[in-house]
């Protein structure tokens, strides 16, 4: 009965309290315009953070400043072989070349041998991600970075609120990035933040204009309304590009709109509750599915599970399963995407593990619209799909 009729579940979180959106629109957030920066910094346990209109904007500007510090001979950035195309777009926007390292399909973690083989005297930095908010061990990569004199940047876009050994994800490496886009842990609709151990570098990042963000807030409100399971199926049927992954190095760079800063200030207190719910739903999936389909969680880790990853097969996901919010993620590995190839460095070594992840991975929804009862029904349907 739950999944019959018109119900069509979105794959990821869009919930922001309506009253927070109304108060942000009416200018009733408490404190000064930089209150979100202060509140977020305190939450993460860092001295400061910089807010931008997106995580990709902040990454692009960070890379530009690091090139200025290190000299123009550092022309390559090492990124995960399976990641969001916006990471590759940020490297291209910074005028640098992309080199991809391989990943282990069993853990979604970096293949450290591949990382080592891809480092050269041209390497400026490498990016380590916590995919789906699942903490990925970083100590070995820190040692590699220090030994080779390159920057370690944590992509914590999907991991705000997660921890590894009691330390907030995104604050372990030299720099850390967060995103507030649709489907992220705190889905403000857009925006991003960057933190780092070198505040002097952060302070020289210049993002330009400070837009008001009326349009951004209106879009956030619209997405919040239209993500209701009774209407979301219609949204996906329209040519709006929902859920698509696009490589576009021509994105706009600016500071975070003031209305979204207010929305962030008003909404940050809801984050821990959203993450607790995601972990509860994920525990139901973990108990219902066979271990050989699951991604292991490191010891001493507090994951987020913006979505719950399952290593399935390459066959097409049927409509009755799509209706439950189950999706593939990024359509191809970085080295397999034709639009990215012109921006690759010479001599990329191949990423078969990343290609396998792109072909097999499916994700289950963990967001606030998924009750425990719905999660159990989803697990039953996914088990049936996997066994066919």
Question: What's the quick description here?
Answer:
The chain is an alpha/beta fold and 388 residues long. The chain is 36% helix and 13% strand.
How would you characterize the largest beta sheet? 7 strands, mixed
Count of DSSP strands: 12
Measured as a percent range, the helix fraction is 25-40%
Number of domains: 1
Q: Choose one word for the global shape.
A: globular
The neighbouring-strand order within the major sheet is 1-9-8-5-4-2-3
Radius of gyration: 20 Å
H and E string: HHEHEHEHEHEEEEEHHHHHEEHHEH
CATH fold-level assignment: Aspartate Aminotransferase, domain 2
- How much of the sequence lies in strands comes to 5-15%
In CATH terms, what is the architecture? 3-Layer(aba) Sandwich
- What oligomeric state is this? single chain
| Spans of at least 5 consecutive residues with low confidence | none
The CATH fourth-level homologous superfamily: Type I PLP-dependent aspartate aminotransferase-like (Major domain)
Summed over residues and divided by their number, the pLDDT gives a mean of 91
Instruction: Measure the end-to-end span.
Output: 23 Å
CATH class type: Alpha Beta
Structural class from helices and strands? alpha/beta
Could you give the topology of this structure?
Elements: H1 18-25, H2 35-44, E1 50-52, H3 55-70, E2 76-80, H4 85-93, E3 97-101, H5 112-118, E4 123-129, H6 139-148, E5 151-155, E6 163-164, E7 167-168, E8 175-179, E9 192-196, H7 199-203, H8 214-226, H9 232-237, H10 258-267, H11 271-288, E10 301-302, E11 307-311, H12 319-322, H13 352-360, E12 361-365, H14 372-387
Parallel strand pairs: 2-3, 2-4, 4-5, 5-8
Antiparallel strand pairs: 1-9, 6-7, 6-10, 8-9, 11-12
């Amino acid at each position: 009965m739950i999944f019959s009729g018109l119900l069509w579940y979105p794959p990821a979180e869009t919930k922001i309290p309506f009253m927070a959106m109304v108060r942000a629109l009416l200018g009733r957030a408490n404190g000064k315009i930089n209150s979100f920066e202060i509140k977020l910094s305190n939450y993460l346990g860092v001295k400061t953070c910089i807010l931008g209109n997106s995580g990709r904007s902040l990454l692009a500007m960070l890379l530009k400043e690091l090139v200025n510090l290190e000299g123009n001979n550092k022309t390559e950035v090492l990124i995960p072989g399976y990641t969001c195309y916006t990471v590759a777009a940020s490297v291209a926007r910074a005028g640098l070349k992309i080199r991809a390292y391989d990943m282990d399909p069993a853990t979604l973690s970096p293949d450290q041998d591949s990382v080592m083989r891809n480092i050269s005297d041209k390497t400026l930095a490498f990016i380590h991600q916590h995919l789906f908010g699942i903490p990925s061990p970083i100590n070995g990569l820190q040692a590699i970075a220090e030994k080779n004199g390159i920057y370690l940047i944590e992509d914590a876009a999907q991991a705000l609120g997660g921890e590894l050994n009691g330390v907030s994800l995104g604050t372990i490496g030299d720099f850390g990035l967060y995103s507030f886009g649709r489907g992220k842990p705190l889905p403000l609709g857009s925006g991003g933040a960057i933190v780092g151990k070198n505040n002097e570098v952060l302070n020289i990042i210049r993002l330009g204009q400070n837009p008001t963000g009326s349009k951004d807030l209106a879009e956030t409100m619209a997405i919040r309304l239209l993500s209701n399971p009774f209407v979301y199926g219609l949204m996906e049927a329209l040519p709006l590009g929902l859920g698509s992954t696009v490589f576009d190095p021509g994105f706009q760079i600016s500071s975070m709109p003031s209305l979204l800063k207010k929305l962030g200030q008003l909404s940050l207190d809801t984050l821990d509750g959203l993450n607790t719910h995601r972990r509860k739903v994920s525990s139901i999936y973990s108990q219902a599915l066979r271990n050989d389909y699951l991604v292991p969680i490191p010891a001493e880790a507090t994951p987020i599970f913006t979505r719950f990853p399952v290593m399935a097969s390459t066959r097409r996901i049927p409509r009755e399963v799509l209706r439950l919010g189950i999706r593939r993620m990024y359509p191809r590995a970085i080295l397999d995407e034709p639009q990215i190839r012109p921006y690759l460095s010479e001599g990329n070594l191949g990423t078969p593990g990343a290609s396998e992840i792109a072909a097999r991975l499916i994700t289950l929804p963990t967001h606030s619209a998924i009750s425990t009862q719905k999660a159990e029904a989803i697990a039953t349907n996914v088990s049936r799909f996997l066994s066919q």
